[in-house]
Design a protein that fits this description.
The structure holds two protein chains of two kinds. By secondary structure, chain A is of the alpha+beta class. Chain A is about 35% helix and about 30% strand. In chain A, the strands form two sheets. A five-stranded antiparallel beta sheet of chain A has the order 1-2-3-8-5. A five-stranded antiparallel beta sheet of chain A has the order 6-7-4-9-10, with no helix packed on it. In chain A, strand 2 (about 160-165) and strand 3 (about 170-180) form a beta hairpin. Chain A is elongated and about 90 Å long. Chain B is mainly alpha-helical. Chain B contains nine helices and no strands. In chain B, helix 2 packs antiparallel against helix 3, helix 3 (about 45-60) packs across helix 4 and helix 8 packs across helix 9 (about 155-175). The chains are: A alpha+beta, B mainly alpha. At the A-B interface, helix 1, helix 3, helix 4, helix 5 and strand 5 of A face helix 1, helix 2, helix 3, helix 6 and helix 7 of B.
Chain lengths: ~260, ~180
């Protein structure tokens, strides 16, 4: 009959959790008890046997099946956005979580506020040229970040307003595009300077974001507003080139910059 | 690092970026499929369970609390879905064809020489709750603490159930002379 304490030690030994002292104690016990020694060997063999079973590759069509099944669904909760943004900010800014939540709440309210203020056209509906006039300047909803650069871009029936905000650790691009939906917007940057973190859009449009290490491209961008968050990898000045394309043809581009910050 | 990337993908999914969720599927479909497969031992059922896990995860992404690791959260859904599936099936099946006859001769089993099958057959003889612990500990190398979170039981219970499940499995496999 194996003592209960040694049964536990045997399992812990197999799991690699025993201290040196516990291992030594167990070895001494096993050397005097052949039953316990056999039990230890069996559990060890069992563990090795289970560990040798390979993971099975899932069928090739499983991913497609999963994605098809979620196509008609939405992830739940606006509160999530705040929570998720806060997590992002904690990671990017290394600030206390409670501050991150306050900031993220502001961010989310700002995004929702944008959508309420805009009263813009529904997705997939082309706006007429006459609706493109008027001021595009907005008060930013991101008081925690200072405006580094901002400006308008124009190319025929498409107009854009770009605001670049930043802090020591974070850059945020607010992008509003008015006009045809068949325009793509590309943001190009040096991957040593910044890394793309997250993306939100006023009118959700599936599969319209393409990411590369040194660029982000938003497809069907007309009549929508976007917020793109980047984490800063260096304190150097960060230029971001914003380009409008239609059918791969460049319509307009402009470089926006965040100044260097002190190391 | 992986966890940070997971949380970033969750954030982007919640912001409407479905490609981010596609990346989550790519990252976790294999491990989730394998949890389901070891719990159920039928590939077609494992596919259904995996699909259901990701659909549930997508729909309830808002309930994910970033203070926990994302993989623990999705494993939790996977184990619960698997347990529910197995329990539902039990009500419809008098005898699961995949559960081996305990009196099968060792010669019959020895001929198969198939480690995976031998282990799977042993697993199917465990209580489904104990099976989950073996699967998480031995196939996915999760700690007692992580298993406790996933199964919503204290770490102490994880240990005692893991130890007794191993002993039951040892006895079964010894009977088939796979552990000698």
């Amino acid at each position: 009959m194996i003592e209960e304490r040694y049964i536990t030690l045997i399992h812990r030994e197999v799991d690699g959790l025993n201290s040196a002292e516990e291992s030594s104690d167990l070895r001494s016990y096993l050397s005097h008890d052949s039953g316990a020694s056999d039990f230890y060997q069996d559990i060890l063999k069992l563990s090795n046997m289970l560990g040798a079973v390979p993971l099975v590759e899932p069928p090739l069509n499983l991913k497609k099946r999963i994605l098809n099944s979620i196509a008609a669904h939405q992830p739940s909760g606006k509160q999530n956005l705040v929570s998720a943004m806060a997590t992002q900010l904690v990671q990017s800014l290394r600030i206390h979580r409670s501050y991150a939540f306050v900031f993220a709440s502001g961010l989310a309210i700002g995004i929702i506020g944008f959508s309420l203020l805009d009263g813009g056209s529904p997705p997939n509906q082309r706006e007429s040229i006459s609706n493109l006039s008027g001021t595009m300047t907005r008060t930013g909803p991101f008081p925690g970040l200072t405006v580094c650069d901002q400006g308008e871009m124009s190319a025929g029936d498409v107009q854009g307003q770009v605001t670049l905000r930043g802090s020591r650790d974070l850059l945020l691009v607010e992008l509003q595009v008015k006009g045809g939906r068949d325009v793509d917007v590309a943001l190009e940057f040096a991957e040593n300077d910044i890394g793309f973190s997250s993306f939100s859009q006023q009118n959700p449009e599936p599969d319209n974001l393409k990411m590369e290490p040194n660029s982000v491209r938003v497809g069907n961008a007309g009549g929508n507003q976007y917020t793109l968050i980047f984490s800063r990898k260096s304190q150097r000045a960060v230029p971001i080139k914003v380009s409008f394309y239609r059918s791969s043809k460049l319509l307009s581009d402009r470089v926006f910059s965040a100044a260097a910050t002190s190391e | 690092m992986v966890d940070d990337e997971d949380k970033s993908l969750v954030c982007r999914t919640l912001a409407g970026d479905r490609r981010a969720f596609e990346q989550i599927v790519e990252r976790y479909q294999k491990v989730i499929f394998n949890v389901a497969l070891r719990m159920r031992n039928r590939p077609e059922d494992a596919e259904d369970i995996t699909q259901s896990v990701f659909l549930k995860a997508y729909e309830s992404l808002g309930t994910y609390k970033p203070r926990y690791k994302f993989f623990s959260w999705i494993y939790r859904i996977a184990v619960n879905e698997s347990l529910n599936f197995v329990n539902r099936q039990k009500q419809h099946e008098e005898l699961d064809q995949n559960i081996p006859d305990p009196d099968r001769s060792s010669e019959q089993l020895a001929d198969e020489r198939d480690l995976t099958r031998i282990v799977d057959e042993g697993l199917m003889q465990l209580r489904v709750e104990d099976r989950a612990i073996i699967v998480l500990n031995h196939f996915h190398n999760l700690s007692y603490n992580e298993i406790g979170y996933i199964l919503d039981i204290p770490e102490k219970t994880v240990k005692s159930r893991l130890y007794s499940a191993r002993q039951v499995l040892r006895t079964r496999l010894m009977k088939g002379h796979f552990i000698q």
